[in-house]
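Hey Z.,

So I finally got round to the 1,3-dihydroxyacetonephosphate thing we talked about over coffee. Here's the setup:
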Amino acid sequence: MTKTKIKKSIPRRPFVAGNWKMHRTASDTKILIEDIVQRVQKVATVDMVVCPPFTSLPAAAETLGRHSILALGAQNMHQTKEGAYTGEISGPMLRELGVRYVILGHSERRQYFSETDASVAVKAEAAVGYHLRPIVCVGETLAQREAGETNQVVETQIRGSLAHFPAAHLDELVIAYEPVWAIGTGKVATPKQANEVHHRIRKLLVTLFGEAGSSIRVIYGGSVKPDNAAELMAEADIDGALVGGASLDARSFFDIIEAARPVRASEND
Ligand code: 13P
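And the result:
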């Protein structure tokens, strides 16, 4: 496959985030962040985020320094400011560490920790109140895809997960479409399969939020690797990637960021 990149009709700034999941201790985090930072120094046209585990956030923040081009994200958040919620982490706790983004409703949290559209909706609304930008995840299982339910499932998840989202904060919202069958399996959705769903999501966002819906970034996740990233991101409705496994390798993560970089006019001729 050729690595053709096309210009997007609506200029949405590409967005690439690494979801480290439950990987890397604090000391390993320093090493990986240093490696990534060195590689991405000259990337000025892509929003780049790393989401290490909670326990690695202070080490990540310290390694990044105050004015890093790489932003910090968390993988979850409790909606309440503080309280008797053993084992939970609040928005203000994350903010104090310099966290700017928070992944909400990842399919692993929906599957293993009983998160629902309703709980994601409460968290997404709370997150913007704490000045955290939500990356809200949606996506169908293999059984749902095979039953022809993909569009309906994703629409229900988006409507439910954004049920309380304040219109004034739409420019802070990122949606990640992550088909569950493509996560950690090496089975990536084809660019066409992914773009079809992204296109439906885009139309739904415009239905829900009017013109503001057309500037929300909709990124793809599920076995994104350096060798498939460019084709995925060449699709008109795919604005970036939420990367799992490949974000744990600085070189691979950088290559994916490079694939998301918009083409300069001269490169497009
Ligand atoms: P993989 O890239 O490892 O498939 O994980 C995707 C994902 O779940 C990102 O949130």
